[in-house]
Structure formats: C-alpha cells, structure tokens
Write a structure and sequence with these properties.
CATH topology: Growth Hormone, Chain: A
Organism: Pseudomonas putida (Arthrobacter siderocapsulatus)
Distance between the termini: 45 Å
Low-confidence stretches: 1-6, 399-411, 415-420
Shape: globular
Strand content: under 5%
GO molecular function: xenobiotic transmembrane transporter activity
CATH class: Mainly Alpha
Largest sheet: none
Order of helices and strands: HHHHHHHHHHHHHHH
Number of helices: 15
Protein name: Bcr/CflA family efflux transporter
Helix content: over 70%
CATH superfamily: MFS general substrate transporter like domains
InterPro entries: Efflux_drug-R_Bcr/CmlA, MFS, MFS_dom, MFS_trans_sf
Radius of gyration: 22 Å
Main location: membrane
Structural class: mainly alpha
Length: 420
C-alpha cells in the first residue's frame, strides 16, 4: 500500500519503520526507568514523592508542549519540528544521565518531555497527512498502537537489565543514543508531508476541536484508557515490590504480562475498527475497563496480598487500554485534515493534562499501596465516556430524523411520501 502523497514514496512497512522509533522513545522515556524509581531518591538526595513527580511532569508536559508544536508543525512543517524535538530529547537525556541534582533532573525531564511531544505531534500529523480518509490510517494506527503497547512490556525489563549491568544513569544514555539514531534516519529519509501551509500560528484554530462533541468523546476515551495505565504504573512499584514483596526482575516480568495483553489486543484493532465501527469499539474498550476495575475491587477486598489477584484483573484493564488508545486518535482527528497538527496537539495536550491531573489527584487521595486508585479511575472515567457516547449517539439519531423529515417535505411545503 502506498501513500496518497506523491512526496512520500515509501510502503506502509517502511513508513512504520521510519516513524515508530519516535513514538517508542517517547514512551520509553516514561517506562524504562520504572524499576529504578525506588532507588533513585538516595542517588539524587531527594524524596520518593519528587521522583514520582518526574513521572507525572513528563506525562503532563508531553501533552501540554504540543499546544506549541502542533501549530508550529502546521506553519513550519512536520520535518523541522520533528528534528528540533529530537535534538531537545537527546540533550535532555544525556543531561539526565550526568546530573546529581534533583532540581536539575526535574528540569531536564521537562525538556525531554517537550522534545518527545514535538516528535509525537509531528509523527501523528504525518500519518494524517499521508493516509487521511484511507483504510491504511486504521492499519498504521493499529500497528503503532501495538508497538507502543510493547514498550510497557520491554521498557521496565530493559531498564532493570541496564540498571543491573550499568546503573540507572545508563538508562537515559540509552534513550539519548536511540534518539540520535532515529533523528539521523529522519534527516536522511523523512520528507515534508504537510499538505498546505498555514500562514500564521492562528491560535484561534485551537478552539475548533473544543466545540466538537466527537472530539471530546474520543479525547476522553484516550484519557480513560491511557490514564488507567498511568495510575497502574504509578502505584505498581510500591504495591508489588513494597507490599507484596516482589523482586525488581519479577516486577518487570509481571508488569510485562499486562503489556502483552495490550499488544495482543492492539494487534487486531486495525481490522476490528473498520468492521465494527469506532463507536462500538469505544464502548467495548470502556466495558473492559469497568469489568477489570470491578474484578480488582473484589480481589483487593478478599485477596489483597495475592500478586495474581492484582495482575489478572489488570490483563482485562490492559485490553481496555489498548482498545481505547487504538480507536481514539483517528476518531478525535476526523474532520480536521486542514489543521491536523494543531488538532493533534490539542488532543494530546488535553488527554495528557486530564489523565495526569485526575490520575495524580486520585493517587494522592487514596492509598498508593492498594489497587483502589486504579479501580476508582477506571470506573469514573469509563462511565463518563459511556455517558458521553450515549449523548453523541442520541444527537446523531435526532439529527438523522430531522434530515429525514426535511427530505420528505417538498418544495411546496407539502409532505412527500418516500414512494413518491
């Protein structure tokens, strides 16, 4: 399958090979150092809460930074924003590998997140430029979703191995070297794909998706899915290595099983979404989140010390996460082809800020070494999304009925039967 853009000469497989490293490295920046989190406060002379803040800050900034990079990518193009973001990511990663100051570490994490956000918005906007309105868009989103779902499986395990062999600082050096390789390939092979140049930043364009119910529906779908996973990996080290006494390596392997469930699910989304339709797949994903949360609540009450009692329900939650993350981007961006970069920025910004703030609030209010933060987050957000889906469906049905009534009324104002 080839792209519709004459300047993009690559097959779908080559496109995935060129684009995916940027998504993978952005996600690895969050997941890879999870096994080392309990041991980093001593190295940086700070508290566990501060290290936890570096996780939350990265996630929030990776979304919020795109409010700048989305409009810039529409004005300047995808390529310069991508390469600039890659450079910022490299500088920040190498600095993180060297610093011994908690304050500097937090600042560099913000810079690293900004670089990652620039790469993400350029990558997703490029996919939209090339494959908008085509079946390939669902296929490539499904493939990218599968690859991103693999990161939580391999990221903590890879981080644990690097930490064991070379120390936790080598984790960030690894990320920097990976981005150097990805940026070098993009410099050589990634052409500009922007369909049309936007004359100015046009910040008013940021309001376009805000007025669209469909955009909110799929953005909150992403918030529900990705936020559930954010709360999970935020509490998992303390719950499993702290309360349940799991080792660092065993934690990484158990954590990986949840990600494998996500990989398995995302692998089929490219075929499921066109067949069932985005609204049905969205509801299926939210149903999985709710079912998993109910099972987690039961096991937390009756078998709270059981590792399997925590991980097994998370497999079902993982299915919901992968489903939501796969269906959300294309649904949220539908109808905004002319400002894909800007709308992508708003999508990731709102999603990141909402899931980061709501997730952090729930973690702060509830005991961190229990499953209750995941339970409350999944039930709350999934219920909101299902409710909004019902509203959207009702509005669509009402709009169709009004259209049918208009079609049945002739030019003379008299009712015309369909048979006429």
């Amino acid at each position: 399958m080839r792209s519709k853009n004459f300047s993009w000469r690559y097959s779908l497989a080559a496109t995935v090979l060129l684009l995916s490293p940027f998504d993978l490295l952005a996600s690895l920046g969050m997941d890879m150092y999870l096994p080392a989190v309990p041991f980093m406060p001593n190295a940086l002379g700070t508290t566990t809460s501060t290290i936890q803040l570096t996780l939350t800050t990265y996630l929030v900034m990776i979304g919020a930074g795109q409010l700048l990079f989305g409009p810039l990518s529409d004005r300047l193009g995808r390529r310069p924003v991508l390469l600039g973001g890659g450079l910022a990511y490299v500088v920040a990663s190498m600095g993180l590998a060297l610093t011994s100051s908690a304050e500097v570490f937090l600042g560099l994490r913000i810079l690293q997140a900004c670089g990652a956000s620039a790469c993400l918005v350029s990558t997703f906007a490029t996919v939209r430029d090339i494959y908008a309105g085509r079946e390939e868009s669902n296929v490539i989103y499904g493939i990218l979703g599968s690859m991103l779902a693999m990161v939580p499986a391999i990221g903590p395990l890879l981080g644990a191995l690097v930490d064991t062999w070379l120390g936790w600082r080598a984790i960030f050096a690894f990320l920097g070297l990976g981005m150097i390789a990805a940026s070098a390939a993009a410099w050589r092979f990634w052409p500009e794909t922007r369909v049309q140049r936007v004359a100015g930043l046009q910040w008013s364009q940021l309001l376009l998706p805000i007025k669209c119910l469909n955009f909110w529906l799929y953005t909150l779908c992403y918030t529900a899915g990705m936020g559930s996973f954010f709360v999970f990996f935020s509490i998992a080290p303390g719950l499993m290595m702290g309360r349940q006494g799991v080792s660092q390596l065993d934690f990484s392997l158990l954590f990986a099983t949840v990600a494998i469930a996500m990989v398995f699910t995302a692998r089929f989304m490219g075929r499921v979404i066109p067949k069932w339709g985005s609204p049905s797949v969205l509801r299926m994903g939210m149903g999985c989140l709710i079912a998993g949360a109910v099972l987690l609540a039961i096991t937390e009450i009756w078998v709270s010390q059981s590792v399997l009692g925590f991980i097994a329900p998370m497999w079902l939650v993982g299915v919901g996460v992968a489903t939501a993350v796969s269906v959300a981007p294309n649904g949220a961006l539908r109808g905004f082809d002319h400002v894909a970069g800007t709308v992508t920025a708003v999508y990731f910004c709102l999603g990141g800020v909402l899931l980061g703030s709501i997730g952090t609030l729930i973690i702060w209010l509830l005991p961190r070494n229990t499953a209750w933060p995941v339970v409350v987050y999944c039930l709350t957000l999934a219920t909101v999304v299902l409710g909004l889906s019902c509203v959207s469906r009702a509005k669509g049905f009402r709009g169709q009925r009004e259209h049918d009534v208009v079609a049945l009324v002739g030019a003379d104002g008299k009712l015309t039967h369909p048979a006429d």
